[in-house]
Amino acid sequence: xxxxxxxxxxxxxxxxxxxxxxxxxxxxxxxxxxxxxxxxxxxxxxxxxxxxxxxxxxxxxxxxxxxxxxxxxxxxxxxxxxxxxxxxxxxxxxxxxxxxxxxxxxxxxxxxxxxxxxxxxxxxxxxxxxxxxxxxxxxxxxxxxxxxxxxxxxxxxxxxxxxxxxxxxxxxxxxxxxxxxxxxxxxxxxxxxxxxxxxxxxxxxxxxxxxxxxxxxxxxxxxxxxxxxxxxxxxxxxxxxxxxxxxxxxxxxxxxxxxxx
Length: 261
Hints:
Number of helices: 9
Strand order of the largest sheet: 5-4-3-10-9
Strand content: 15-25%
Low-confidence stretches: none
Order of helices and strands: EEEHEHEHEHEHEHEHEHH
Structural class: alpha/beta
Distance between the termini: 50 Å
């Protein structure tokens, strides 16, 4: 695959990762995920049935693990201990699955990450053999600490989870991107396609989103828009934008060979 996203040694053609919550049913979940082109899907172990209840519909039937890479996450966890316990349960439910998304929240109002607990949980999980993708603040120092622990990807928030406010601090994201030796993916805050494109134009390796798609009036149509935005943003980053110039207008058409000259 050309220009693949590589996480924990595995290559993916799509740089868009999507969540599986907040849809009206599993049928809509599948339709939106398919429209997004995503290969990695996140699942909140505490909120979604993936076998915990054999008497209820399972996400595994709508999105078979043979088609998608599952990324179990610790949504709803507020301590390192709780997060570690949740991901160990996920590993059992998914037959030894090691790729996980760690998030330890600070409070239920903002859902901002609790970084001391996140660092503590990351250290335990990495030692336990997990391949950890981690939700974190947009702090370059914290991101570097997580990389040093052994996380396979760092995922700074663009703005608060579910806010749709877009990228509020592109400068911090650039600092993280420039110093990281593991993939950097924007996680949280994307509201529409232009936000995803901006993240990719900044140099992010990918974007993870849920509410931006599931909360749209037409989730399937929005999923397709996000797919295009991520691809366009990545291509723009690789192409290299023209330099910005203050008060220096340049004609967009040739100035030689003009009629009458």
